[in-house]
Amino acid sequence: MKVWNVTLWIAQILLAAAFGYAGTFKGTAPMHDLVASLVWPAALPPGLVRFIGGCELGGALGMILPAATRIMPILTPLAAVGLATVMVLASIFHITRGEFSALGITIPLGLLAAFVATGRFRKAPIRER
Question: What is the pTM of this model?
Answer without folding.
Answer: 0.95
